[in-house]
Amino acid sequence: MRKPTANIVRTSDRANRSRLGSVLACLILSLYPSVVAGQNEKGVQKSASPEWADFIDAFEVSDSTPYSAGGVFYHLVSHHLRANERAIFSRYVYEFQSQVGLEDNSTLVWNFNPEFETLDLHWIRVFRDGQWIDVLPTLALEVVDARTDVSSWFYDDSKDVRAILEDVRVGDVLDYAFTIRGSNPVTKDYYSESVSLGYSVPVGEIRVRFDWPLGNEALRYKTFPELIEPEVREEGDQKTFLWNLVDVAPVIVEDQLPSGTEVLPWVQFSDWPDWSAVADWAVELYPLDSDLPLFLESKRKSILTEGGTPMEMATKALTFVQDSIRYVSIPIGPHSYKPYPPKRIAERRYGDCKDKSLLTVLLLRGLGLEAWPVLVDSVDRSLVVDRLPTPASFDHVVVLAMIEGEEVWMDPTNSHQGGVLPERFFSDYSFGLVVGDETTGLISDVGPQGEEFSRSTIQEQFSLASFSGPVEFKVVSEYFGEEADSLRWNLADDGLDSFARSYLNYYAELYDRIPDSEPLLVKDEREENILTIEETYRFDTLFPDEAGSTTVTNFPAEVIRDNLAYPPERIRSSAFSLPRPLNLEHKIEIQIPDQSEFEDEDFSVENEWFLYEGNVRQEGNLLILSHRYENQLDFVLNEDLDRYVEDLNVVDGWLDYYIEVNQDSSASGNETPSSFFAALRDTFSTPVENAEAEAKVSWTNQGYISGSHAVAFCMISFLGGMLFFRMIRGKAS
């Protein structure tokens, strides 16, 4: 089960995936390797609508709102859920407003699992020139294997039914209805389902009806993100809950929302009594008393023989499962919730989060450690605590172990991790359900773990024998904790050559010239979880020697700038998420080829969201620019965005350091009095908050060099040429 995240979708009670009944009323079908044509495929038929179905009367077409998102306007979205029949009757009515809408929404796709579900198509008709045209009787259907997402190694046994509509046109109104019956038998006699009450596009009318047998008091329902009261009545032997919403405005789903943000409205139904009942059900699915498969038993013995602390042994067990069992998900039938038998997982050497977590728990228990699988939600995370009890509230499985009295978290699907537990990174899932006999409810504080060990340091060294001559440029980047994990995975995925090309292009663009390069050097200390990359480049020069000209080169802390999180839009109604953990240090060392002197500087910005510290120091001929940036929260409230961006802009201003060189300013006759530059500064420069010193300009007939943070930049036309001015705080010799 998963609520829709955008547009019009229909969800079903099943773990780890959604059944998308419609995205803008349909999905664009991907290409599949095999197609079975025909209309008599198992579980698919054309039939009349069920007798109990509501809202099946002829639809009166009315005016639509112009320029709707996606080129279609939804007149009606209707769902009628009948719990005792495990059935949902759905109806969509929408108008093709443009060619874009027609192309994207004239192929209909339904997904169902023929092992325990059926699909009945009731009607598909088109309204044109004042009359309805029935297209279902002659419509050809294709049934294909869904295999939901091959790119992420996710397979299942469901089917997609495809109908390509013929002779539909812009201005037509499409009306179609269908019923899907059945539910996964692994959930036994319990019931849970959810359906949307709003979308990211406008809808003329949304109608949701839910029927529950009278006399059965087990049902509960809940609407999100806020209460939307239904009309409740009794009809025959059913208690009916009805939501009828008219002229429903679109819900804006903004980018980069914090984890656990609820936006789109929806309703959840469940008759599971409590989380303890869900845990008891899950215990039956996880054979935690199974014998270890042979290759795991062999690993258990070798770990015991090698010895070490309990933490070290647990780390070896986790690493073995992470690296020896590849991730492939095949949630066929009951295996959407139930792991495969341990022996089968071992034979195939692949499995999904359920399978890998089960093997990890068995191996840890074989080492004498306490361990359990834990069900979590990788998307809603903290919102799980507000959900009604149901297994469909979870989409991921992790491992909890008690080692020397300490709770230790593990995710066996995270390959390429380094370090020793509990220093290994584990995400913040907030709440989870332990699969164990003593579980009575959700537990809190499911992560985070190891955040404090995640950081990166970048040290750049520029060696200049002269300003106009070649420059040796070396970069040493060290990654720790989760940063090392991510880079280790990327290196394994992209390859070292790809990294070398991207790094070379990065600096070629940054300094606007292509350097010579040496091969990248990688040092991976996986046990300490430190990964180091060394880069060596050679520029022909960074200060071209052009008589009478002034050359300006920037030495920016660009890696930090790349990680400054600006909101994609300033006008927002929701909080803005920040990446965390994020802890960066960027040091730039420049070997100056003469006796020029630069002023020491210190600057910082600290607020509730981040800390930035920087300074400029000179040690003999070595100029050192140091920067450190760390996120302290993972979100910014909407009302604080202006202040956050203002502080971020201040940081951005400190990240540039310009060095200006003119080795023979008088040779070309361009001698200009310093008072003129001061006038330009006063006229064009913009004061920067927290600036600690006034701008100073130094100019001599013999030449000058000066360093500056780019606190202002102006370009003007003067005497038929272009004159560049930067407010500078460096001190020339």
Structural commentary:
The strands form 9 sheets. Strands 2, 3, 4, 6, 7, 10, 12, 14 and 15 form a 9-stranded mixed sheet that branches. Strands 24, 25, 26, 27, 28, 31, 32, 33 and 34 form a 9-stranded mixed sheet that branches. The chain is globular, with a radius of gyration of 32 Å. The longest helix has 16 residues, at 496-511. The chain is of the alpha+beta class and 733 residues long. Helix 3 packs antiparallel against helix 4 (310-324) and helix 4 packs antiparallel against helix 6 (353-366). The model is unreliable at 1-39 and 665-733 (pLDDT under 50). It has 11 helices and 39 strands.
Largest sheet: 9 strands, mixed
Shape: globular
Helix content: 10-25%
Low-pLDDT residue spans = 1-39, 665-733
Rg, Å, rounded: 32 Å
- Ends apart, CA distance between termini: 69 Å
> How many E-type strands?
39
- Mean pLDDT reading: 84
Instruction: Supply the number of helical segments.
Output: 11
Strand content: 25-35%
Structural class call reads alpha+beta
